[in-house]
Recover the amino acids of this structure.
């Protein structure tokens, strides 16, 4: 066999009588033999006429092999195998192993080093007790010569003497990246484990794991001992052995950064374990995954109970998940606790949340403190402690280890007796003071309040101050309560403190030490204060301080008179060379803007001019409704902020903002690194064109993506605003206003075919990563929700089984934060598949359940109480309008269950249009009597209307006609933006049955840009369509109107796309002749009702070439086959030459034809391909059926050569081949056109139906695949699974698959699709 690459045989009889031929396994690479004599394998290797390039050899002998046979085999192996290609050698010689012939270490490694010098693993296993004479010295040559080793298995060393040379004596290549190494030396000498491991660290600095081989057994199974050591019963793909890939998979299943305190922010909303159940299943698939998965599962713990349950060997199935299983076991049997199992998991915990929900009694903590040396969790880094019982606080020492870096105390204590204050003070002082010795790495202490706590700051005022007075020096401190003056003095004198977060006027207004006042402070955050206290605090610094970050958040509304003193103190006391972030929130989120209060004058933005001294400023956010913003402010200060990356100026109300589009020009000119702009504009006039052409600052790299949020963009001005923004900021990327963002991106390569409606529907929101507004960080939230400190993380949308299409997750997200409410509601109500949920918002009543009923009673989307709409005065129109303005597309049909009285009540309310921003309406009803109510949903923003015509309701044609005329004629007034109309019909109707209704609708329609109808229309309607001046696209059905159409002076002047189905080809020929000159069509698609004759086809092609502009036509699709199964085999055939005239259409990108009776030949493509150099899709279908005697096409594989030569943009080819012989190799050596602008697209090839495919054998499929790859290097898929396998077999992801395995894989993929 010329292409046989892998051979796996069994039994000794196979090789005994084998005689070599002139062609003896020419392409063999992998050889696997089981149950065979070694001498037969030796003779087999000598049969090769030359050195064979084998990559893998696996041999398992039947019986013991004598030494002479082993030596002969090794010599033959070295003489007949190419040493440059050999990668894997596995040999099992019965009970005698390769070590039997090795007398000392040097003789071993004269062979071993030559075998593994370029290898990655070495394993030598001796089954006899005294055969191995290996010592620790034998590892030295491996360390010196084998730099890519990943695994060493040498179980059974004779001597464990430490004879390791100095590290400098081992020469290793410089710049080489050494992989992780796993070493297995069998049963290590008892008591010498640490010494041996230290010796191995010297030899192999890249050693990753070290273990014994107590579970390794040599048998007749094909699994090697190395694979058993990793615990896998199937070979693990090499990609999964990469630590980076493995950790990435684990991160997707169970993110490491999401909140230590949230179960519900994972992508799987139905998984209460936050992805831990998926990790547990993943860990059981292979032992190589076990440790990383266990680390991820135990990394963040929300309770100590699961860990304490590891100490208990008893069983209690009645305990709730996450609760302590058997508390009595700890007191009854304290000496019988399973500490080995506990320590196995405890060293994996990095963060722990402790609170009352654990249900751990005090006696358990006492047992833990008396039976185990602290700390319980040696590698714990973050401890969150929240207990209402003050007596538990001393037990915090059990968890404070040397690795602890961050301590968060959620103190929530009830007021105790008067004499308990001193006791509590002593407990806190003793506990916090001990942290200096227990946790030397502690650098962050937080005293925070949990959301939902029903006590005031004063309840824990003293405890927070006690903690500050007793704690060791730290680098970061955060407190959500006020502090005493002593506590603040202690903080101010603490050296090394770089970040503080304080709360309240009492703390900031306390007495201070003027000699030593926060000497190393870099980040200052103060919240819930009055601005005058912040001014006094800054003035307390004895000299200009080197702040990097300043965040100030006031408790109430800040008047303009208090802003100027603060800015003066800031400029005086802060070093202008170090400040990079300034965030001022001078209005609380709950305060009302004083927009209508004339007694509160606004401060001029000139008071902020002093900020221009801070030349290193990168982020600036000022939120205040007491500042009058002016363009001149930005013009004065922005030239000094050349490093600015984010700017937010929020006035809270339009009254105090005089900013215009002109203010953006200084930002574009002076700030090349801007990433985010958030402003309130008052005037939306375009800036001066001369200023927009100002010279920008140059940088050494490309500008970053820019996000711009301008509040309150006027309706219908989005496109103009987007054009101005693109002129000012060429690097603009996104905007919060969807319409503005669409016009920013509409000419990008990936967005040119997307409409504004489709963009608003399908736009992914993760485009705005990092573009969120600069918000002041709030106090640490509760266990139910926590936002990441580094901002929002990328989420994964895996709602494959969510029947709501993700709406359930969006609804949950909207309830987490008020900032997310509006965007989430927009997404929830953007597309409605029923009008009933919106109508239910009008009804405030609740219909009680009847006796014996169980809710929910109504199906989702059903109208709850239709009788309620009889009284229009009691409907909640405010709530209805709150959601109705968010609807962009709506589908309404009979499934809504909305009766006629409800529609009449809505019409009588005189509130049309009900959906003021609706862009796409889909109306589908079987009862045509409801059609007049369609006007209730037609808004000025309506752009697309899809109507499914149903049964005639009145029975009087004239009444139906007048109703239709009255409805459609009003659309020009109600929906002036309507551009697309589509008429669809159910499959139960014939195309001519609804012709009158569809025609009435057309003749009263105002001019459109696109029209489509699945029903036929009459001559009058088609004549009106032909006179529309802006009609670009039509899709018609039937030929009755086309047959009688007469051209007028204005005949489809702007028509580009023509799609006609169920038409006679003669009528289409007549339609084309109606154009007076060559028309600039771009797309022509025709589907005939019957098979046309040869003369009709020839006449149509001639007319097409005469009346169609050859420079504009890019798509031609012809379906000239009727749906009838009957076919006249005596019909004369048509020569392909009549289609040669089509080569004048040099811009053609798609050519598709389906016709019978045409005799295709290779010459057709040879003539046409040189003219169609832009061709992307080529499809020729003869509708051939084997049961009928039809002429076969005469295409051969040679016909593909012109396509490969002249058409570099092809990504789809469909032909029917009759001859599968290989083309001439000389012709296949073609010169392809160069494509400098882009890479070749993926090519999909179909060369016949399944019955016409080449013979189902390995040789034919592989040969055809080789021809396709030689002609089209970019071929990606094929019609045949066998051919497609040989196209892809050398791709990295398919190298280990067989044709049968690939066929099964393809079938599974098709089933999933």
């Amino acid at each position: 066999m010329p292409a046989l690459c892998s051979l796996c045989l069994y039994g000794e009889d196979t090789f005994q009588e084998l005689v070599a031929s002139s062609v003896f396994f020419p392409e063999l690479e992998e050889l696997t033999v089981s149950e065979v004599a070694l001498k037969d394998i030796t003779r087999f290797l000598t049969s090769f006429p030359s050195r064979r390039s084998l990559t893998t050899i696996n041999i398992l002998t039947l019986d013991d092999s004598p030494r002479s046979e082993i030596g002969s085999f090794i010599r033959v192996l070295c003489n007949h195998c190419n040493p440059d290609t050999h990668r894997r050698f596995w040999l099992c010689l019965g009970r005698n192993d390769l070590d039997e012939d090795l007398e000392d270490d040097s003789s071993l490694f004269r062979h071993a080093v030559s075998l593994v010098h370029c290898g990655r693993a070495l394993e030598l296993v001796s089954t006899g007790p005294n055969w191995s004479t290996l010592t620790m010295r034998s590892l030295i040559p491996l360390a010196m010569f084998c730099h890519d080793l990943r695994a060493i298995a040498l179980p059974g060393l004779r001597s464990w003497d430490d004879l390791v040379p100095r590290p400098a004596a081992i020469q290793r290549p410089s710049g080489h990246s050494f992989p992780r190494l796993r070493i297995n030396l069998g049963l290590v000498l008892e008591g010498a484990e640490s010494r041996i491991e230290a010796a191995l660290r010297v030899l192999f600095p890249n050693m990753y794991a070290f273990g014994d081989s107590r579970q390794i057994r040599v048998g007749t199974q094909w699994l090697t001992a190395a694979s058993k050591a990793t615990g896998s019963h199937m070979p693990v793909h090499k990609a999964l052995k990469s630590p980076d890939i493995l950790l990435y998979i684990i991160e997707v299943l169970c993110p490491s950064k999401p909140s230590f305190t949230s179960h519900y922010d994972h992508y799987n909303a139905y998984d209460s374990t936050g992805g831990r159940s998926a990790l547990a299943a993943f860990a059981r698939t292979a032992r190589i995954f076990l440790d990383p998965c266990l680390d991820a599962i135990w990394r963040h713990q929300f309770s100590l109970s699961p860990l304490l349950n590891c100490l208990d060997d008893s069983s209690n199935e009645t305990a709730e998940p996450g609760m302590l299983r058997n508390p009595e076991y700890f007191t009854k049997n304290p000496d019988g606790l399973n500490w080995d199992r506990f320590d196995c998991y405890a060293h994996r915990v990095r963060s722990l949340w402790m609170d009352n929900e654990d249900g751990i009694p005090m006696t358990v903590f006492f047992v833990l403190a008396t039976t185990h040396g602290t700390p319980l969790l040696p590698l714990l880094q973050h401890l969150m402690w929240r207990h209402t019982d003050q007596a538990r606080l001393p037990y915090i020492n059990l968890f404070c280890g040397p690795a602890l870096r961050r301590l968060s105390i959620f103190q929530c204590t009830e007021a105790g007796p008067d004499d308990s204050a001193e006791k509590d003070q002593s407990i806190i002082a003793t506990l916090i003071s001990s942290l200096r010795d227990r946790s030397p790495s502690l650098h962050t202490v937080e005293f925070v309040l949990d959301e939902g706590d029903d006590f005031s700051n004063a309840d824990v005022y003293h405890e927070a101050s006690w903690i500050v007075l007793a704690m060791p020096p730290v680098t970061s401190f955060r407190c959500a309560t006020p502090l005493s003056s002593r506590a603040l003095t202690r903080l101010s004198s603490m050296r090394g403190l770089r970040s503080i977060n304080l709360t309240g006027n009492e703390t900031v207004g306390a007495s201070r030490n003027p000699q030593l006042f926060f000497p190393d402070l870099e980040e200052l955050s103060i919240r819930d204060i009055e601005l005058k206290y912040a001014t006094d605090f800054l003035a307390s610094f004895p000299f200009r301080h080197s702040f990097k970050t300043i965040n100030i958040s006031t408790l109430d509304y800040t008047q303009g008179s208090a802003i100027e003193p603060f800015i003066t103190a800031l400029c005086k006391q802060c070093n202008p060379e170090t400040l990079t972030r300034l965030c001022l929130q001078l209005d609380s989120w709950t305060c009302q803007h004083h927009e209508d209060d004339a007694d509160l004058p606004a401060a001029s933005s000139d008071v902020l001019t002093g900020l221009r001294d801070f030349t290193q400023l990168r982020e600036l956010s000022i939120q205040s409704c007491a500042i009058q913003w002016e363009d001149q402010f930005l013009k004065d200060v922005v030239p000094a902020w050349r490093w600015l990356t984010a700017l937010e100026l929020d006035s809270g109300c339009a009254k105090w903002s005089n900013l215009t589009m002109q203010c953006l020009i200084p930002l574009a000119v002076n700030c090349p690194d801007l990433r985010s702009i958030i402003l309130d504009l008052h005037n939306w006039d375009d800036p001066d064109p001369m200023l927009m052409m100002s010279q920008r600052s140059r940088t050494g790299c490309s500008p970053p993506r820019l996000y711009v949020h301008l509040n309150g963009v006027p309706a219908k001005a989005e496109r103009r605003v987007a054009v101005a923004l693109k002129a000012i900021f060429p690097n603009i990327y996104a905007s919060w206003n969807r319409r503005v963002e669409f016009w920013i991106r509409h000419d990008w390569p990936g967005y040119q075919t997307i409409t504004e409606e489709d963009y608003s529907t399908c736009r992914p929101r993760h485009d705005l990563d990092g573009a969120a507004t600069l918000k002041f960080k709030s106090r640490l939230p509760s266990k139910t929700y926590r936002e990441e400190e580094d901002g929002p993380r990328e989420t994964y949308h895996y709602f494959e089984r969510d029947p709501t299409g993700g709406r359930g997750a969006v609804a949950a997200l909207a309830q987490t934060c008020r900032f997310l409410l509006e965007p989430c509601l927009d997404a929830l109500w953007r597309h409605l598949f029923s009008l009933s949920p919106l109508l239910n918002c009008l009804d405030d009543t609740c219909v009680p359940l009847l006796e014996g009923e169980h809710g929910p009673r109504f199906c989702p989307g059903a109208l709850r109480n239709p009788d309620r709409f009889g009284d229009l005065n009691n409907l909640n129109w405010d709530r209805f309008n709150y959601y109705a303005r968010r609807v962009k597309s709506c589908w309404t049909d009979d499934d809504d269950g909305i009766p006629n009285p409800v529609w009449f009540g809505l019409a009588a309310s005189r509130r049309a249009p009900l959906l003021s921003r609706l862009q796409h309406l889909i109306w589908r009803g079987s009862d045509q009597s409801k059609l007049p109510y369609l006007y209730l949903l037609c808004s000025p923003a309506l752009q697309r209307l899809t109507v499914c015509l149903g049964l005639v309701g009145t029975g009087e044609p004239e009444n139906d006609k007048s109703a239709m005329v009255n409805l459609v004629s009003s659309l020009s007034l109600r929906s002036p933006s309507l551009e697309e109309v589509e008429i669809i019909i159910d499959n139960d109707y014939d195309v001519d049955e609804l012709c009158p209704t569809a025609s009435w609708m057309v003749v009263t329609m105002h001019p459109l840009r696109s029209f489509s109808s699945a029903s036929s229309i009459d001559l009058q309607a088609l004549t009106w369509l032909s006179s529309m001046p802006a009609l670009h696209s039509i899709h018609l059905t039937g030929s009755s109107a086309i047959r009688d159409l007469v051209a007028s002076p204005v005949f489809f002047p702007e028509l580009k796309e023509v799609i006609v189905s169920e038409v006679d080809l003669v009528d289409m020929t007549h339609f084309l002749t109606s154009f007076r000159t060559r028309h600039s069509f771009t797309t022509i698609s025709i589907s005939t009702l019957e098979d046309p004759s040869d003369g009709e086809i020839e006449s149509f092609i001639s007319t097409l070439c005469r009346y169609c502009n050859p420079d504009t036509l890019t798509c031609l699709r012809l379906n000239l086959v009727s749906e009838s199964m009957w076919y006249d085999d005596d019909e004369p055939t048509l020569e392909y030459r009549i289609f040669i005239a089509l080569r004048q259409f040099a811009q053609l990108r798609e050519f598709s034809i389906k016709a019978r009776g045409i005799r295709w030949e290779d010459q057709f493509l040879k003539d046409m391909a040189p003219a169609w150099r832009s061709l992307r899709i080529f499809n020729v279908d003869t509708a051939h059926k084997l049961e009928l005697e039809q002429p076969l096409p005469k295409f051969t594989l040679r016909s593909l050569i012109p396509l490969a030569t002249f058409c570099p943009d092809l990504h789809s080819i469909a032909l029917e081949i009759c001859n599968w012989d290989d083309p001439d190799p000389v012709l296949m050596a073609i010169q392809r056109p160069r494509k400098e602008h882009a890479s070749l697209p993926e090519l999909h090839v179909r060369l016949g139906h399944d019955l016409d495919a080449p013979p189902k054998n390995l040789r034919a499929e592989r040969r055809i695949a080789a021809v396709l790859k030689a002609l089209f290097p970019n071929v990606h898929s094929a019609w045949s699974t066998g051919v497609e396998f040989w196209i892809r077999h050398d791709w990295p992801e398919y190298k280990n698959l067989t044709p049968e395995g690939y066929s099964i894989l393809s079938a599974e993929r098709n089933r999933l699709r």
About this structure: The chain has a mean pLDDT of 76. DSSP finds 45 helices and 44 strands in the chain. The longest strand covers residues 30-36.
